[in-house]
Amino acid sequence: MAKSALRYTPAGVAVFEAACMHEGTVSEAGSERKLAFEFTTVAVGAIAQALDREPLGASMTVTGFMAPRTRRSTRLVLHITEYEIIVNENR
């Protein structure tokens, strides 16, 4: 959806931030439920540099963990630790 310019911490560690979109279907209590939502992600280090090189709008599967944006925040952010581009042969 949108990504910020790659930035670096004072210690020189790369930080990548992006707003992403998820669309899918899940089964809940025997019923299909469609999901479509935006969420914020962050990645640091080598994974940040790799994600920054990916084209905007690329479909991917990500692995990571949820954590508050800051120590005192209740807003959650997905910290990406791994990703894999989804190759769609129909495109």
Task: Tell me about this structure.
By secondary structure, the protein is mainly beta. The protein has a single domain, classed as OB fold (Dihydrolipoamide Acetyltransferase, E2P). Helices cover 9% and strands 57% of the residues. The chain is built from 1 helix and 6 strands; from the N terminus they run ββββαββ. A hairpin with a 2-residue loop joins β3 and β4. It is globular and about 50 Å long.
Which key features would you list for this structure?
91 residues; mainly beta; OB fold (Dihydrolipoamide Acetyltransferase, E2P); six-stranded mixed β-sheet; 1 helix; globular
What share of the residues lie within helices? under 10%
Percent strand equals over 45%
Number of strands: 6
Query: Sheet bearing the most strands, described?
Result: 6 strands, mixed
Question: What is the correct CATH architecture?
Answer: Beta Barrel
* CATH fold category name: OB fold (Dihydrolipoamide Acetyltransferase, E2P)
CATH class: Mainly Beta
Q: What number of structural domains do the residues give?
A: 1
How far is the first residue's CA from the last residue's CA?
A: 18 Å
Tally the helices.
1
- Judged by helices, strands and strand pairing, the structural class is mainly beta
**Strand and helix order:** EEEEHEE
Mean pLDDT: 93
Say which CATH homologous superfamily is assigned. Answer: Nucleic acid-binding proteins
Measured on Cα atoms, how large is the radius of gyration?
A: 15 Å
Low-confidence stretches: none
User: What is the general shape?
Assistant: globular
